[in-house]
Amino acid sequence: MAKKNKMKPRELREAQKKARQLKVAEINNNAAPAIAAMPAVEVIAPAAEKKKSSVKAAGMKSILVSENKMYITSFGKGNSAVLEYEVDNNDYNKTQLSSKDNSNIELGNVNEVNITFSSRRGFESGVEINTSNPTHRSGESSSVRGDMLGLKSELEKRFFGKTFDDNIHIQLIYNILDIEKILAVYVTNIVYALNNMLGIKGSESYDDFMGYLSARNTYEVFTNPNGSTLSDDKKENIRKSLSKFNALLKTKRLGYFGLEEPKTKDTRVSQAYKKRVYHMLAIVGQIRQSVFHDKSSKLDEDLYSFIDIIDSEYRETLDYLVDERFDSINKGFIQGNKVNISLLIDMMKDDYEADDIIRLYYDFIVLKSQKNLGFSIKKLREKMLDEYGFRFKDKQYDSVRSKMYKLMDFLLFCNYYRNDVVAGEALVRKLRFSMTDDEKEGTYADEAEKLWGKFRNDFENIADHMNGDAIKELGKADMDFDEKILDSEKKNASDLLYFSKMIYMLTYFLDGKEINDLLTTLISKFDNIKEFLKIMKSSAVDVECELTAGYKLFNDSQRITNELFIVKNIASMRKPAASAKLTMFRDALTILGIDDNITDDRISEILKLKEKGKGIHGLRNFITNNVIESSRFVYLIKYANAQKIREVAKNEKVVMFVLGGIPDTQIERYYKSCVEFPDMNSSLEAKRSELARMIKNISFDDFKNVKQQAKGRENVAKERAKAVIGLYLTVMYLLVKNLVNVNARYVIAIHCLERDFGLYKEIIPELASKNLKNDYRILSQTLCELCDKSPNLFLKKNERLRKCVEVDINNADSSMTRKYRNCIAHLTVVRELKEYIGDIRTVDSYFSIYHYVMQRCITKRENDTKQEDKIKYEDDLLKNHGYTKDFVKALNSPFGYNIPRFKNLSIEQLFDRNEYLTEK
């Protein structure tokens, strides 16, 4: 039989890369001829539909191994685990641990290699599914696998004080390590944003005032270090930080985070505000030290315990911030929601007492328990209206749509939360059994059909009240209910642990998407840890799970999971502070093209900020509504520089690349709304080119005559101007956000390097006297030199890859990798983007942008340097106007001890492109 003409892995990766580049090449004016001449588009395979594994869909959650036993669990309610079976690893005899009523899977044959089971409920019930036996590897059976880094035992000793012959403890530990990874990313970004708000310019070695802030110092020590017992060096560092801290306050840019200094002549009130801000920044700085440097041997710097050890004034600030938020939510809740509550009481009076409705509505609005049901109430309502309630989408409801949908969602919430809990659990199971997104959509559609018959009349009733007169009458209703009704429901700071309060404090510096990402990840990880602890403590498994001192917090994982869910619901991106408006107007005008040296008086004159009168503030309001209140504008100011963003936007090649990542349908809409005389028959390339030209030439003069209260043609011009600004901010946001995301991958790698170095020092004598800061290659270098004696199986078992890593280590030097590490920590690529991005010959990926700018930053001369001191790859970099692959590998050589991570971060084809954002 003839052999199939199968591509080699390298050829396949190159073909995939070229296919991805094709679209960019078609719209890139300076694309390399070889790319422009590539074959047709059909080589690009369509994205595969997201598909769940049959093992998970059938209900199996995990297979845990402890000594000579295996424990098989299934998915219970929510994320809970049901212990189903115990299997003896010697003879594979099985014992059922769950009751027949609670059991979700039926175990079949178990042997050395495979485990067979079937689902008892829903998913192809009775059909056998195979999964591998986790104790089997390379034809050999061992009770518990080791890890490729060889650090399992050291991690167990760090977290539990001893080693274990199971895979349960290490899985719990990996969840804790995931928490530290995501905190490393977000805290690094927050520190950069705060430094960036100062407008610091220069090289990657700029003063990082956040780096000198420590929660070990009280506010009194910070403001008067001379009166402390600190060393002279530390006193000097504090004085520098204090100067920068005061400068940051004067910029008013903390207003972007919703922090506003009180307008008062009372110095005590003003000082109290400054003290709180200092505490917030110092805690951020302390978390950064904990997650970016291995400090596990110092309890006062441990991430999970320092907040309970430092001075109580820090905890008082956290209490203040949380109580302030709860007070704003709780104060006058009933009166503030009078219209909705009145209507609901009237509609639901046959089934619920009025007090109960009020409590449920508080739960729905504030605690958002509907998000913990395991399915989407919003999606159910959307399916109902799409299929059966089209009239509710009529334009007549536009002004009240949000209120109407909220009330509809509340009725559905009550149905599953109180009336029909069993139906909700059944829906969760059906969704879990769904293998594809299409199957999930079908499950929601089937459920929506059942709900429509039940709630049609209620939805009609709600819609009938959605008019001005009805709402006005409801607003007059006598709401003679005491706010004390909600006393048992209302939350305050005392209900949360300080770790949860600390996470809430971090959300001050994040936007809505970042808050959701951070809290969703943390909730998931703490929920997993809670389940592992529950299994470990169960009578069936019963293994030791006493955490060491620095990790006692995780004994409260159940409580923290619940608290973080509350934090997620009360945290939101804060509106910019009013006192910062002048600073924001300056940034807004600058990003639209006015010179950033414009005086405050000139800004006031242009926008008529000091003038009073009707109809004269149209331009001011237009800039406020379409620039300042845009979350994308705020993100750009946090992470970039308004003047530099405007300069980068003049690079059509870069703008075309970003536009290439925006879906074609969205490009069509942008083109239609932004171009005055659109030719809708023109090609997509021509449309993107026209949009790029508009972004390049955007000028404040284009908007200065826009009228806020416009009609006719003037209104058409205003809407077009809004669309152009929206497109401009979106494109620049996508560019900066994706580069921040790329940098995050390397932040995690640095975090893991710092952590793993500390672990390896405990087991490798050759590292005992080494300092990572002196040479970031030292860990990979030492593990390569140990060869067969190395505990690291990645390097021990693959001589070819080990030699490749050794070459990359030798192609780097300690100065180069130290500078690389600092550039990652300080997001230098984002800050220096404008300086180098114009030199790139071909822009075809964020990876290539990132590494070209990074390599230019690494080779940049701080002072006059002799020619012989030139970095090895500098000539190639300048000659080719693109990043050098071998240079990337040399810079990443500190990560070479972890081969998969090293390859994923060094080879563009392997870099996870799912990290990139597109406008949808």
Write the layout of secondary structure elements.
Elements: H1 9-27, H2 33-36, H3 54-57, E1 60-66, E2 69-75, E3 81-88, E4 94-96, E5 105-110, E6 114-119, E7 129-132, E8 136-137, E9 140-141, H4 152-160, H5 168-197, H6 219-223, H7 232-251, H8 267-292, H9 306-309, H10 312-330, H11 333-336, H12 338-348, H13 354-367, H14 377-387, H15 401-419, H16 421-433, H17 437-464, H18 468-475, H19 498-506, H20 512-537, H21 557-570, H22 581-591, H23 600-607, H24 618-628, H25 631-639, H26 642-648, H27 652-660, H28 664-674, H29 684-696, H30 712-761, H31 778-786, H32 793-796, H33 799-810, H34 814-825, H35 828-831, H36 833-836, H37 846-859, H38 874-880, H39 885-891, H40 899-906
Helix pairs in contact: 5-8, 5-20, 5-30, 8-10, 10-19, 12-13, 12-18, 14-17, 15-16, 15-17, 19-21, 20-21, 22-24, 22-26, 25-30, 27-29, 28-29, 30-37, 33-39
Q: Explain this structure to me?
A:
- By secondary structure, the protein is mainly alpha-helical.
- Helices cover 55% and strands 5% of the residues.
- The strands form three sheets. A four-stranded antiparallel sheet has the order 1-2-3-4. The protein has a three-stranded antiparallel sheet with strand order 5-6-7, with no helix packed on it. A two-stranded antiparallel ribbon has the order 8-9.
- A hairpin with a 5-residue loop joins strand 2 (69-75) and strand 3.
- Helix 5 (168-197) runs antiparallel to helix 20 and helix 28 (664-674) crosses helix 29.
- The radius of gyration is 30 Å and the shape is globular.
- Residues 1-13, 15-50, 201-205 and 864-868 have low confidence and may be disordered.
